[in-house]
Amino acid sequence: MDAIEVNNLVKSFREKNKLIKAVDNISFSVKKGEIFGLLGPNGAGKTTTLNILNGLISKDSGEIKILGLDPEQNELNWESVKNKINVSTAYYSLSEQLTIRQNLKVYAMLYNIKNIQEKIDQLLQMFELKSLDNRKVVQLSSGEKTRVSLCKGFINDPEVLFLDECTVGLDPDIAEKTREIIRDYQEQKGTTIIFTSHYMYEVEELCNRIAFMNNGRIIKIDTAGNFKKLIKKTSIELTIKENYPALMKIMKERNIDILSTGTNTVVFEVSSSTDQLYKLMNMIFKAGVKISDMHMNKPTLEDIFIQFARKKQRVR
Ligand SMILES: Nc1ncnc2c1ncn2[C@@H]1O[C@H](COP(=O)(O)OP(=O)(O)OP(=O)(O)O)[C@@H](O)[C@H]1O
Ligand SMILES: [Mg+2]
């Protein structure tokens, strides 16, 4: 049994006379213990999908199952599911006039947590918030608020955790530690996680598989490695010490795609298979061209994101 199953999910919003199809017939499943990424441009439908899964809004049509149960089918299913899931987002509104500890206590009570103080202390320690525990949320920096939201997400040791842009505003050091916490926690408890973020390296580092969404639809589901293989070209930048004309002659003869040139530099594209590059470099060396520097820009998930996001908008 998969931890999450989504079939033909549809959700529209009506705004004045316009119908906004936020989620347009999507299907996917997430295995138990998997970290599944939802990627896509602003307005793609990621948060709407997560909000349906965590029970915040209801779907128009389609089927969802969480831990084998359809939460909307009856009250009993929802009661069973809601204690096993949780959500964390940097945009979640905490009670600003309550302290960190008071906020977490409210959530702990909602989830019927035993040993509330112990659990809160453990989370504050994990997210380096212990010294701030009696500070009102209104007095916190945005990164500190983000960390309180993360504590909230972990408070019931959820079996399924929805992390919607949960690392926004974190400094690089805390962001790195947070990724480690998420990974360690997931490994220890086998939690199933759906993760959204606009930081590509983070998605690449954490997610086992990624669904790329655009205009409410899922364009493709695959691993980060396979997504990157979709870009067939690698760009190379060479700085030339001697014999620049010989280099340019070879480039012309071999029909190499030149992206830009400088007084002693050239940036060009070759196929991502190392074969073509190896042959070309051999020719360049044989022609007596002396190279003082070389940079290879391998395709990144960011390149894929931009390529997918710029694909033509759907006509409705
Ligand atoms: N309550 C609402 N009323 C009307 N339109 C909405 C509502 N919530 C979302 N939308 C619209 O639905 C679409 C999908 O929004 P959603 O928040 O799911 O996108 P997202 O992928 O999470 O984007 P982002 O990366 O900016 O967080 C957008 O066009 C958005 O404007
Ligand atoms: Mg969103």
Report what the structure shows:
The chain is an alpha/beta fold and about 325 residues long. The protein folds into 2 domains: about 5-220, P-loop containing nucleotide triphosphate hydrolases (Rossmann fold, 3-Layer(aba) Sandwich); about 230-300, ACT-like. Chain A, domain 2 (Alpha-Beta Plaits, 2-Layer Sandwich). About 35% of the residues lie in helices and about 30% in strands. It is built from 11 helices and 13 strands. It has helices at about 45-55, 75-80, 100-110, 115-125, 140-155, 170-190, 200-205, 225-230, 245-255, 275-285, 300-310, and strands spanning about 5-15, 20-30, 35-40, 60-65, 85-90, 160-165, 190-195, 210-215, 215-220, 235-240, 255-260, 265-270, 290-295. The strands form 3 sheets. A 6-stranded mixed beta sheet has the order 5-6-7-3-8-9, with helices on both faces. β6, α6 and β7 form a beta-alpha-beta unit. It is elongated, with a radius of gyration of 25 Å. The two termini are about 35 Å apart. The model has no long low-confidence stretch (mean pLDDT about 90). Adenosine-5'-triphosphate binds near residues 20 and 46.
Bound molecules: adenosine-5'-triphosphate, magnesium ion
Which value, in Å, is the CA radius of gyration? 25 Å
Q: Which structural category fits the helices and strands?
A: alpha/beta
Count every beta strand, where a strand is a DSSP E run of 2 or more residues: 13
